[in-house]
Amino acid sequence: MISSLDGAVTAAPLRTGFRWLQLVMGIVCMAMIANLQYGWTLFVDPIDAAHHWGRAAIQLAFTIFVVTETWLVPVEAWFVDKYGPRIVVMFGGAMIALSWILNSYADSLTLLYAAAIIGGMGAGAVYGTCVGNALKWFPDRRGLAAGATAAGFGAGAALTIVPIASMIVSSGYQHAFLTFGIGQGLIVFVLAFFIQPPRISIPPKKKQLNLPQTKIDFTPPQVLRTPIFWVMYLVFVMVASGGLMTAAQIAPIAHDFKIADTPVTLAGFQMAALTFAISLDRIFDGFGRPFFGWVSDTIGREPTMFIAFGTAAVMLLALSAYGHVPVVFVLATAIYFGVFGEIYSLFPATCGDTFGSKFATTNNGMLYTAKGTASLLVPLASVISTAYGWKAVFVVAVALNATAALMALFVIKPLRRSFILGKEVESADTATGNAKTETA
């Protein structure tokens, strides 16, 4: 809902092309917060070279950012439900700008961690609002809409990775933080004025047997009491932990493999292995989110999860065995992120299908906190790699992804269908009983 100047509450009208415009604006906003997570790896070693705080201490800022970003989303979603998306996204734009401005001046770990908290608040406000708004506007294409919105976050860094890397080399990481922080925050702040929710709940066009959707809108407290929510939460954590570790540590991994600056030529393009990998990762990540969302709209959520999680396990295994080969490093990380990013389209879509549209922003926000839980394992990856090497870290991630793939097909799928069918039967029985009582 949107608060007008006279205090009245209004909302966007239901027009054919209007929801696509809302989707595009959400995608752009997501692209502007992408570097807070995916561009971070470029700053780790320069910050360490300048202050000698150590990778583990610096990466703690990344964990703090992700935890804050995810665990505050349900709170920010409550503000969206009460005051509308505009004010929440405006707040997010201001916070992400302030975060990187503080990073540019940070001369202590305390200030670096404070900036991570502020950035997490801003990114969470933008992320939760834009994905939740997409779920409400597109109940008939939840996978595609959530995937396209999340693609902004996944691919948003692709266009700016090279400029940021170049600016860090030419002007220093502090200048890069300051310049891109102000620019990204300003764009989000301006777009916030035009983001609106639908006026009414939009029903799905048709019911698909392979895509069960509930007819009941479950409140957040009801969702938290369901076993299926916590099973999805566990699988989300299992898959997200490997992706977050790889995103945060890809630069240190490349340096430890001694291939970071090795030239790699693919499809007529030549770049240093690390820069090529990060750029290609963002492109594949961004493409994979709407693609797998569309696939899940067609063949079902759980079969798509099985395909994606299984492929991720194979790519991590390839990195473990052949990651020291520059071409393998670039291609394996690209394919891995292409199938990893789909968790940010499939889980929101599955959450909306399972628990309804009315409270989709808050319910998805609660599920999204699984990303924050997974981020707690990121510093642990540095510790394990120091003691046993990166191969041990990859082996753990392979096991988690393989297990998640099997759970999607053999645990989530039957449990979710049983939940939806059972609740609809229960609701029908209650309605029939009430009708008989009124007749009597």
Q: How far apart, in Å, are the first and last alpha carbons?
A: 41 Å
Helical content, roughly?
over 70%
Secondary-structure element order, N to C: EEHHHHHHHHHHHHEEHHHHHHH
Principal-axis shape: globular
What is the radius of gyration?
22 Å
- Give the percentage of residues in beta strands: under 5%
- Helix segment count? 19
**The CATH fourth-level homologous superfamily of the largest domain:** MFS general substrate transporter like domains
Count of folded domains:
2
Task: Compute the average pLDDT.
Answer: 85
What class would the helix/strand composition place it in? mainly alpha
The major beta sheet can be summarized as:
2 strands, antiparallel
CATH class of the largest domain: Mainly Alpha
Poorly predicted regions: 1-10
Strand order of the largest sheet: 1-2
Based on DSSP secondary structure assignment, what is the total number of beta strands?
4
Report the CATH topology name of the largest domain: Growth Hormone, Chain: A
